[in-house]
Amino acid sequence: MDKQVPVSEIMTKNLIKLHLQDELSQAEALFKKHRIRHLPVVEGEHIVGMLSYNDLLRISFADAVEDDEEEIETTVYDMFSIEHVMTKKVVSVSPETSIREVATIFTQNEFHALPIVSHDNLIGIVTTTDVIRYFLTQY
């Protein structure tokens, strides 16, 4: 196994992202529609935060609505903004960072997604699932 494979080899490049002015109900709809658990929050192409599905669960009953339901109860969401709920101190890595280094970062922290940033611009995202899938292909 090559220990220096860059994370750019496994990162998601076709990003689904949020902007600070978006509503939390939009975030929940994106999580469910795309079956994802993490959304980068951007201003332009610069990452300003990360929102996870678990962040929504902390303030609501987001899991009480079935994934195929169209209607989302927004009463709780109307009390918060994305900026209130998102993680603001975001750890990011460059596309050249090795998958091994990314795995180490995940094991030392309590988050499961890392934005990939190049020249201060968000270019991708990698999750613990992406890393596990990569390691499974190696064995």
Automatic annotation (TrEMBL):
Top-level division of the source organism's lineage: Bacteria
InterPro entries membership: CBS_dom, CBS_dom_sf, Diverse_CBS-Domain
SUPFAM superfamilies: CBS-domain pair
Organism classification: Bacteria, Pseudomonadati, Bacteroidota, Flavobacteriia, Flavobacteriales
Domain CBS: 11-69, 86-139
UniProtKB keywords: CBS domain
Organism: Christiangramia gaetbulicola
Protein name: CBS domain protein
Pfam families, A to Z: CBS (PF00571)
